[in-house]
Design goal:
Layout: H1 3-9, E1 12-17, H2 27-37, E2 43-46, H3 52-67, E3 72-77, H4 83-95, E4 100-104, H5 122-132, E5 137-142, H6 153-166, E6 170-173, H7 179-191, E7 198-202, H8 208-218, H9 224-232, H10 237-258, E8 262-266, H11 271-280
Parallel strand pairs: 1-2, 1-8, 2-3, 3-4, 4-5, 5-6, 6-7, 7-8
Helix pairs in contact: 2-11, 5-6, 9-10, 10-11
Bound molecules: flavin-adenine dinucleotide.
């Protein structure tokens, strides 16, 4: 089923997983997925890592989710990919029944300063897929606090507008711990003519160092309410986790109250913590 059709009916709930690196077996993730299915997600998304075994594993996970009868959206990037490569990968995805793709530029591997592929930006991949495989449902990435390399939020939103014009069906956002920033972004995007559904990407707040690392590497802010938790539980991992999970639940409620089109939880393949958050949020 196309996610765009589900978004016309309801607010979606979805989970993101990533393919573990070899030699970590896939069984742990498959078990995590079985546990996440209990929450009846509208779809699962699986990240894409350029080249090598993790691409194969992305395919394996997509196949397993499809086999279980659940909807899957694969991520796909321009990194190192020619048109022919992308044509062939997408053909493989279609062969296993995939109808939804998150079309991304991708993060440059260390030492790269371009995609080293035929497309330089997400919008070009979206246009290519629309032209070659017009039946697919396409998602595009959005950045509530702007992409870390974008000179301004307005400029970044102008590029989102191009993704919309090239045929994206909905947007999915980067993590954002700050509801005010998310509201400002949505307001500006709507005023700039972005009419597509926007699904909020939510990174559970579970431990202090990853929160710092992820927010810094993505150029996101840490709002005062979260900073207080970080200060209060600096040396108390269990206390931090409890307060962080409560913060995450509150954030989910705030996103729902502001009318986002979907809640997408970056599970980090940790279903136990995510299960508690989903239950506490009443999703
Ligand atoms: P683009 O849309 O190309 O944007 C990147 C930057 O270029 C922005 O600053 C934009 O404003 C600017 N820009 C866009 N078009 C132009 C233009 N024509 N001229 C000049 N500048 C332009 N990465 C992975 O490798 N694998 C994943 O599975 C993955 N999953 C993700 C899931 C989500 C929900 C999100 C939000 C991100 C994900 N990423 C993933 C990270 C993503 O690949 C990076 O953020 C990447 O740096 C940008 O991808 P994009 O598609 O947004 O790029």
């Amino acid at each position: 089923m196309k996610i765009a059709d589900v978004l016309k009916q309801k607010m979606t709930l979805s989970f993101e997983v990533f393919p573990p690196k070899e030699p970590v077996p896939l069984t742990g993730l498959l078990d995590a997925l079985d546990n996440l299915y209990r929450f009846k997600p509208d779809f699962i998304s699986c990240t894409y890592h350029a080249g090598g075994d993790r691409r194969d594993r992305n395919m394996e996970i997509c196949r397993a989710v499809r086999k279980s009868g659940h909807e899957i959206m694969t991520h796909l990037t321009c990194i190192g990919n020619t048109r022919e490569d992308l044509h062939s990968f997408i053909g493989d995805y279609i062969d296993i029944g995939i109808e939804n793709i998150l079309a991304l530029r991708g993060d440059y591997p260390p030492g790269w300063n371009g995609t080293r592929g035929d497309f330089a930006h997400g919008q070009e991949l979206i246009e290519f897929v629309q032209d070659e495989f017009p039946g697919l449902c396409l998602a595009a990435a959005a950045y509530p606090e702007k992409h870390i390399t974008a000179p301004s939020l307005e400029g970044d939103i102008a590029h989102l507008r191009i993704k919309q014009e090239k045929g994206a069906h909905f947007f999915m956002t980067q993590l954002c711990h700050d509801i005010r920033a998310f509201e400002r972004f949505t307001d500006k995007a709507r005023k700039a003519g972005i009419h597509l559904p926007i699904i909020a990407g939510i990174m559970p707040v579970l431990s202090r160092d990853p929160v710092i690392r992820m927010t810094f590497s993505n150029g996101c802010s840490i709002p005062a309410e979260l900073a207080v938790i970080m200060g209060k539980y600096e040396d108390d991992k269990a206390g931090f986790k409890k307060a962080g999970m409560e913060y995450t639940v509150k954030l989910i409620h705030r996103f729902i109250d502001m009318g986002v089109n979907g809640i997408h939880i970056y599970t980090l393949n940790r279903w136990e913590d995510v299960a508690v958050i989903v239950q506490d949020a009443g999703l």
